[in-house]
Amino acid sequence: MALIESLAALSLATVSAEGAVATKTLVFKPKTAKTATPVPVLVFALQSTQTPSPLVAQAASVKEPRLAKDDLVQEFFAVSAKEVSIANLNKDLAGKIKIVIDQNIVDADESTVLELSTESAKASLPATTIKAFLESTGIELIPVDFSAAPVVPAPGAGAGAASASKGAKDAKKEAFKKEKEAAKIEGAQLIGITVDKAKDFSSWYSQVCVKSEMLDYYDVSGCYILRPNSYHVWEQIQDWFNFRIKKLGVKNSYFPMFVSQRVLEKEKDHIEGFAPEVAWVTKAGNSELDEHIAIRPTSETVMYPYYAKWIRSHRDLPLKLNQWNSVVRWEFKHPQPFLRTREFLWQEGHTAHLLKEEADLEVQQILDLYAGIYEELLAVPVVKGKKTENEKFAGGDYTTTCEGFIAATGRGIQGATSHHLGTNFSKMFDISVENPLGSDKPKVFAFQNSWGLSTRVIGVMVMTHSDNKGLVLPPRVSQYQVCVMPVGLNSKTSDEQKKVINDGAEKVEKRLKDAGVRVTGDYRENITTGWKFADWELKGLPVRLEYGPKDAEKDQVTAVRRDDGSKYVVKLSELETRIPEILEEMQEGLLSKARKDFDEHRVTVEEWKDFVPTLNKKNVIVAPWCGVAECEDDIKDSSAKKDNGEEEEVDEKAPSMGAKSLCIPYEQPPFKKNQKCVKCDLEAKYWCMFGRSY
Amino acid sequence: MALIESLAALSLATVSAEGAVATKTLVFKPKTAKTATPVPVLVFALQSTQTPSPLVAQAASVKEPRLAKDDLVQEFFAVSAKEVSIANLNKDLAGKIKIVIDQNIVDADESTVLELSTESAKASLPATTIKAFLESTGIELIPVDFSAAPVVPAPGAGAGAASASKGAKDAKKEAFKKEKEAAKIEGAQLIGITVDKAKDFSSWYSQVCVKSEMLDYYDVSGCYILRPNSYHVWEQIQDWFNFRIKKLGVKNSYFPMFVSQRVLEKEKDHIEGFAPEVAWVTKAGNSELDEHIAIRPTSETVMYPYYAKWIRSHRDLPLKLNQWNSVVRWEFKHPQPFLRTREFLWQEGHTAHLLKEEADLEVQQILDLYAGIYEELLAVPVVKGKKTENEKFAGGDYTTTCEGFIAATGRGIQGATSHHLGTNFSKMFDISVENPLGSDKPKVFAFQNSWGLSTRVIGVMVMTHSDNKGLVLPPRVSQYQVCVMPVGLNSKTSDEQKKVINDGAEKVEKRLKDAGVRVTGDYRENITTGWKFADWELKGLPVRLEYGPKDAEKDQVTAVRRDDGSKYVVKLSELETRIPEILEEMQEGLLSKARKDFDEHRVTVEEWKDFVPTLNKKNVIVAPWCGVAECEDDIKDSSAKKDNGEEEEVDEKAPSMGAKSLCIPYEQPPFKKNQKCVKCDLEAKYWCMFGRSY
């Protein structure tokens, strides 16, 4: 992670498609007097170069260098030893460390591409770029020809040192060649995902997001760039949702991103939750502002004073406004693409109604639309329900929610929430009208709702469907649904035959475009078909259309689905009908697979003894519950990993996190008689869904 | 302006529809020792109440109060005497001023609505709200019954004082009655625009923006709320433009709003123009940030480092990204709705190309789209052309522009610009690829364009079409194109007849909706038809459809166009075809009227002696010009109003601003032989458009 972030900051390269030569970065700590500050030696060499410590010692003029431990690496490079790379270098380190650099790298020519790697990330860059960067840091660079240098065997240097001495210029060239060959063979994998979804979910997720070109890490921590591959998903969601909320009479608008300190802090209770995360503008140009100005973390305090102003009579109700904007919450927790970002895109709807019934109805209508975005567009199943008192939006009367599930981690994830605020805010902001029954009756406060859905939905979609080949995108939201690729062409193919195939493929592309399919074509010639397939799989293309000499002969194309690899032979005469069908089949396939996963991992538990073991099997739980807040706290507490817990709770593999209530699902099967709460002795009131969660 | 802004800050009312009683706010300066700070007395009274200064002196215990001059009013209330109202009061004034309040206002009951007015604005508020506000300021309030109080005639009190003494309770009631009647008669005008477009354009504009519900003033100065009536226009523009740029291969994306100080200041030349206006985030929650973070004033430095990273080979070109976002430029000049705002919405396209020709072509394609937004959607004619070297975007090679014209002020206005950046930025950011001709050839820097269009377009549209009745919206962009209104119903109409008319109107509404017309209906019963008409005219509804007993009889509706009031009788059988036609006729009518205005006020001038007089007649000028930057400066300088200028330049009515070059129009009529520059002795190179401008 640190590597990728640092690279982003350096504006360096993305992972290269062509053969790159592997390198390694090692940090050594020389023997240092206790009172002195150590000067670590960083060794940057080809993976294939042996770098025995005596040579390092000799070159850097230090005593007894040993591989540095995590704390030292952390201190100097702000990452663990496993994650360190030259991307962690910066000018502040000049004078504080030394760099020993492999002569092979110094000698590398312009065409050489080097691969940097840490445990969680890889990136390939031209050697010249890397060298220029190293020089720009101002850190002392010490070139060493490890293969040529005379080795003074030292105690503890061992086999590595011995084998290093056999090298020469020839060996160096050999090493290059080998590396390059290895890279070529594994070409497709080099650009792909290098971490297993099942084994290291977090690194896998980060790689999928970046390598699929959904998103890139940005110079300002916690902020990310939404590239067209993800922004298109957001646009599809916007269109779908706008169309439907406008039918409900909601209108779009735009309120300023700024809130004055005075106004923001007016509603102490409301702001309390956001205060630690508010970003403050205090300066414009060189002038200090008289009053500090906040960037909206949400827009209640921005909008409601104007609702009070605009709503003068019951005829001004309902007022239903929505805005698509970005909000800023300067969280200090570890950021995560789409899921936890300091700036994020969302829509926030804020409505005011004369009657509670109207407001209640709208809360449900919006929740249904949110569920529709997940299920119909993103093919992600959700469970709709109500939040418990503990988990609801503090300012409101009740909160409804769509809850998703990430099968790979067994954790629940809050999808989107639709709140009924009652008259809590309308009383604070005096959003009121004369009583329609007569001015002698008390004035009436508006019943308000607010509801929001953010780009987090994209993260949930990525986590749900994607695999070790990369991104999987549901056809309804993907930028391209289909890519036509000429196949079966090789060096023996005549130019004439090539032209027939390319022209045929272009015709297929044109016909699909006219039929309203989001289609593109890949006619790149310098790369292999296999590499193309892998590249498009990485980027989540739903259906690849292969068109080769055999297809041309038989007036057909071969369609291959991204999610399960199933192949369809499609007659050209049926192109316009079959391709949309295949896309829809894939869309449905994704949803039903994900739904099966969720259904199988949403387990009914009635007795506490089964609760934590079930949870630890990557499930969420539906359990009978008393509805008492303290009992909910107790469940959370008791399902967290503790040193002194009951036996079944001390499970090494379980995350330390306790199970939160996710929602009280709307679907409530009947209870058996005298059903007790799963945790306490009270009678159960609801089935409640519990789980570890994001 | 100040009034409206202050009211916005107070979350007070918008202008009321019903009869309101006029008030006045006067500031008196008492005789004060030179060494002492004066304590002004603010008098707040009904317009009809005489408030002689001796009574003020007596009530406030001050000596010889005189109407205060501008400097004192400015010092205490931050506005001029003409603009002061009680909306300018705040807690900081407690202890520093006194308020004398008319007993009539103190006694006003709950149903009384008071009208506050300053020279440029009016607003009506319930008396109770006003009184609560006055009390909340903590300023000393001194109620005075001017009509009942015994008057001690004083030198200089004059006739006003004498006439004040005739009042009594009866007179007070009489005054109320008169005010209310006057208000009722002018009911329709009270909610409408109170300033003449031709006489006070700036106040007129501000009133149109606010009263039409396009926009509202916001608590943070320079920021405005875009209400649905204007945001809908923006959405129409987005849809239109997105559809067309996507065809050109441009993709939408989203980059973070933040830029680190280090990155922003990396390109010194680029940032220089923006630096004084950059808003800085320095704090998050209570933590000071280690590095200050800017809010983007534009996104070159945000995006281009990533362009350098993503563009690895000529196959990655062209890269064409666009984003719809908001940017912040903390200008300290006087803000103006839509035209100069501290946060504004825009789109910014940034593209990189392998070939200059490709980039050049795109610059023109985008400029044509911008002209299309103005002419096809907003019915605003523009002149396309190139900016002079003086006026082009400093970072680019050349700038193309659409220039509009505000007939009411005779000023030009820059519509939108499309820049070719050459390789200036690609060299700074190293956006380069290996030469496609071979790696031995020098690497190739990308040719870049950038282009942007902001919500300023909405302001230009408002200024162009709207009139003294309020907003005029072109049908293609208006939220509602048509509103159906039952007419001809009165207290004598039977319930049955009412139902027939209302049902009929609803049927018309339904049919138009099904035909894809953006239609609504106004079935409000407690207000008069005349008031409804005025209300919809104020809000810019393109076509009003009247449906009354006569229409029902004849199976017809009566359509009335907003722009010229022309009436059309439409047979119900032709509803779905005729209404869209009428809308299109209006759209074309608006454009041709505006084009006529622009054409008539774009005057060819060949001799300098005619230049300033022509300019002063609210024209822009097309003149032969030598193309020399210094000559351009000279033209600007010489056309500005100066005390010591030539005779024709000393024109009291001319604005002091000089004429800038607006563009070198693409349309270049042939020159006569040896055509000289309009200003200097050099030969003319182009026809150039000059004008005073926004």
UniProtKB/TrEMBL annotation, chains A, B:
<keyword id="KW-0030">Aminoacyl-tRNA synthetase</keyword>
<keyword id="KW-0436">Ligase</keyword>
<protein>
    <recommendedName>
        <fullName>proline--tRNA ligase</fullName>
        <ecNumber>6.1.1.15</ecNumber>
    </recommendedName>
</protein>
<dbReference type="InterPro" id="IPR002316">
    <property type="entry name" value="Pro-tRNA-ligase_IIa"/>
</dbReference>
<dbReference type="GO" id="GO:0017101">
    <property type="term" value="C:aminoacyl-tRNA synthetase multienzyme complex"/>
</dbReference>
<dbReference type="InterPro" id="IPR004499">
    <property type="entry name" value="Pro-tRNA-ligase_IIa_arc-type"/>
</dbReference>
<comment type="similarity">
    <text>Belongs to the class-II aminoacyl-tRNA synthetase family.</text>
</comment>
<dbReference type="InterPro" id="IPR016061">
    <property type="entry name" value="Pro-tRNA_ligase_II_C"/>
</dbReference>
<keyword id="KW-0547">Nucleotide-binding</keyword>
<dbReference type="InterPro" id="IPR002314">
    <property type="entry name" value="aa-tRNA-synt_IIb"/>
</dbReference>
<dbReference type="Pfam" id="PF03129">
    <property type="entry name" value="HGTP_anticodon"/>
</dbReference>
<dbReference type="GO" id="GO:0006433">
    <property type="term" value="P:prolyl-tRNA aminoacylation"/>
</dbReference>
<dbReference type="GO" id="GO:0005524">
    <property type="term" value="F:ATP binding"/>
</dbReference>
<keyword id="KW-0067">ATP-binding</keyword>
<dbReference type="InterPro" id="IPR033721">
    <property type="entry name" value="ProRS_core_arch_euk"/>
</dbReference>
<dbReference type="InterPro" id="IPR007214">
    <property type="entry name" value="YbaK/aa-tRNA-synth-assoc-dom"/>
</dbReference>
<dbReference type="Pfam" id="PF00587">
    <property type="entry name" value="tRNA-synt_2b"/>
</dbReference>
<dbReference type="Pfam" id="PF09180">
    <property type="entry name" value="ProRS-C_1"/>
</dbReference>
<feature type="domain" description="Aminoacyl-transfer RNA synthetases class-II family profile">
    <location>
        <begin position="222"/>
        <end position="474"/>
    </location>
</feature>
<dbReference type="GO" id="GO:0005737">
    <property type="term" value="C:cytoplasm"/>
</dbReference>
<dbReference type="GO" id="GO:0004827">
    <property type="term" value="F:proline-tRNA ligase activity"/>
</dbReference>
<dbReference type="InterPro" id="IPR036621">
    <property type="entry name" value="Anticodon-bd_dom_sf"/>
</dbReference>
<dbReference type="Pfam" id="PF04073">
    <property type="entry name" value="tRNA_edit"/>
</dbReference>
<dbReference type="InterPro" id="IPR006195">
    <property type="entry name" value="aa-tRNA-synth_II"/>
</dbReference>
<dbReference type="InterPro" id="IPR045864">
    <property type="entry name" value="aa-tRNA-synth_II/BPL/LPL"/>
</dbReference>
<dbReference type="InterPro" id="IPR004154">
    <property type="entry name" value="Anticodon-bd"/>
</dbReference>
<keyword id="KW-0732">Signal</keyword>
<dbReference type="InterPro" id="IPR017449">
    <property type="entry name" value="Pro-tRNA_synth_II"/>
</dbReference>
<dbReference type="InterPro" id="IPR036754">
    <property type="entry name" value="YbaK/aa-tRNA-synt-asso_dom_sf"/>
</dbReference>
<feature type="region of interest" description="Disordered">
    <location>
        <begin position="637"/>
        <end position="656"/>
    </location>
</feature>
<dbReference type="GO" id="GO:0002161">
    <property type="term" value="F:aminoacyl-tRNA deacylase activity"/>
</dbReference>
<feature type="signal peptide">
    <location>
        <begin position="1"/>
        <end position="17"/>
    </location>
</feature>
<keyword id="KW-0648">Protein biosynthesis</keyword>
